[in-house]
Write a structure and sequence with these properties.
Strand content: 15-25%
Shape: globular
Order of helices and strands: HHHEEEEHHEHEHEHEHEEEH
Structural class: alpha/beta
Strand order of the largest sheet: 1-2-3-5-4-6-7-8-9
Number of helices: 10
Radius of gyration: 25 Å
Helix content: 25-40%
Length: about 325
């Protein structure tokens, strides 16, 4: 993800050269005994080891900041292509694959030589809006006019991001066993591979990634991806009608990392949604770690736990898909 740095030996040579250049010249002392020579050599070895240690401790985030963008090029090969139309405007997309993931990619309108911002969207259970193209219709009008490379990704099992790739029962009726939950982070690792591949195929800005999710996609992001890879990939999270604390109750990285300052979460959900308790637990967890967290709670009619993603008895209290680019826009405005 980071540009290639010169080998450690290079830095040692440079450091030694600077040391010699900055030292006062002295006449050679022929009376130095062998013990002194050995001590001097040992001091130099210790200095070199210290230099190696300092270089090796450079974090992934520090390396990320060493240039403005990934410098990638070439794009990805399309398995197929298509278009979606919104209010008389058409948006072309490329269907591609990276590892186990199928993608729909919408490139932005011409941005010259400027690096692109990356946006990733993760559908809810069933993948309906991904398959139908509705997610692209809701998101592409914003991303294509704001220099954003938009990528909607289909879950490896074809239906649910929070379930393991091997669990493929997607009928919406069969009770899901606990062991089907992707606690091992296989899907998060697939997304890490995706991000690296995209950064190699396009010139992607090193700014925070835009990540969006609906229902199960939001659960995946808060319970799995952010806890595992949030330090490596700071992000702005637009989370509709979903979320959960990390599966093991903690992050896999230090919460005081600078990545926390470069990340923010925006939760949107109805007050009668059946995932209400889990979403609020996720928001509270990240607030407790001093992440920037915002909430938009939509008042709904009906009994508690009777709605989901704005669907209240067949009518909708809010547009959960349309809310994703709205939240991205708000998070980017706060960045400025």
């Amino acid at each position: 993800m980071s540009p290639t740095r010169p080998p450690l030996r290079f830095w040692l040579i440079i450091a030694t050269a600077l040391l010699v250049a900055c030292s006062d010249p002295e006449e050679p002392n022929t009376t130095v005994d062998q013990a002194d020579e050995q001590e001097s050599e040992q001091d130099l070895e210790i200095s070199e080891i210290s230099e190696i240690s300092e270089i090796s401790e450079i974090s992934e985030l520090d390396q990320l900041d060493s240039t403005d963008s990934s410098q990638g090029h070439g794009g990805l090969s399309c398995v197929s292509e298509g278009t979606v139309s919104v209010d008389g405007s058409s948006y072309a997309y490329c269907v591609a694959t990276v590892g186990a993931l199928e993608l729909k990619i919408v490139e932005p309108q011409a941005v010259g030589d400027a690096p692109l911002r990356l946006a990733l969207y993760f559908h809810g259970d069933g993948a309906g809006p991904y398959t139908s193209g509705l997610a692209l219709k809701k998101h592409a009008p914003y991303t294509s006019t704001h220099g954003i490379l938009y990528v909607a990704a289909k879950a490896p099992n074809g239906c649910a991001w929070w379930l393991s790739p091997e669990y493929t029962v997607c009928d919406g009726q069969t009770p899901i066993p606990d062991e089907a939950i992707d606690r091992a982070g296989e899907n998060a690792e697939a997304v890490q591979e995706l991000i690296e591949t995209l950064r190699g195929a396009w010139d992607i800005s090193n700014e925070a990634i835009l990540l969006g999710g609906s229902s199960g996609g939001s659960i995946f992001l808060t319970a799995n991806f952010l806890p595992l890879f949030g330090e490596q990939y700071p992000g702005y999270y637009a989370l509709s009608c979903g979320g959960a604390p990390p599966y093991d109750g903690t992050l896999a990285w230090e919460a005081n990392s600078a990545a926390r300052e470069r990340s923010a979460l925006s939760f949107t959900y109805g007050d009668k949604d059946f995932v209400l308790e889990d979403v609020e637990a996720a928001a509270a967890f990240y607030e407790g770690l001093q992440f920037s967290v915002s909430r938009k709670v939509v008042p709904e009619t009906g009994a508690p736990s009777s709605s989901h993603c704005g669907n209240v008895g067949g009518s909708y209290s809010y547009d959960q898909l349309g809310r994703v680019p709205e939240a991205w826009s708000e998070l980017l405005a706060a960045e400025d």
